[in-house]
Write the structure tokens for this entry.
Amino acid sequence: MVPEVFYQTVAQLSFTLLGLWWLVLQTKYSEWIHDRLRRRMATNITLYFLLPGSMSLLALLATESRLLWQVSFIIAAVIGATTAILFLRDALVSPWRNPMSIRVISLASGLGVALYILVIVVALVPDLFRALGATPLTVAGIGVTLLVIVGVTLAWTYFVEPSASAK
């Protein structure tokens, strides 16, 4: 697949999912707006769609400039990893209504951090991946795609989490 077509598709998908995610947030507004952990989770999930979409758009702009995609991917991945780590830290010490939710959240968030780190490494040392016979934007694209999947997993977990009134 041509990288431009791939990143265009990922950008469209990411921003479509972001819009759908915002609709989901409206349905649970009264539950998350007053709960610090739920607000942090909503922000964290938002970034799983916003950052890959932004990275994809910047990759499209960077066809002539390797430095542009590298810097933008590093900045976006550092923001994403930091947010995911902070959320995971808070989620592990907070009570959850559903024990399965915390397991899914922990696993998905840990995977998200690892994927953000992969994107950072690819952007920092793209020649390493070239030496291994891989195109850096392709490897980063795999990481970006998996980040969107992690976001969908977290969004679904958040959506099906029982409400406080269901306790």
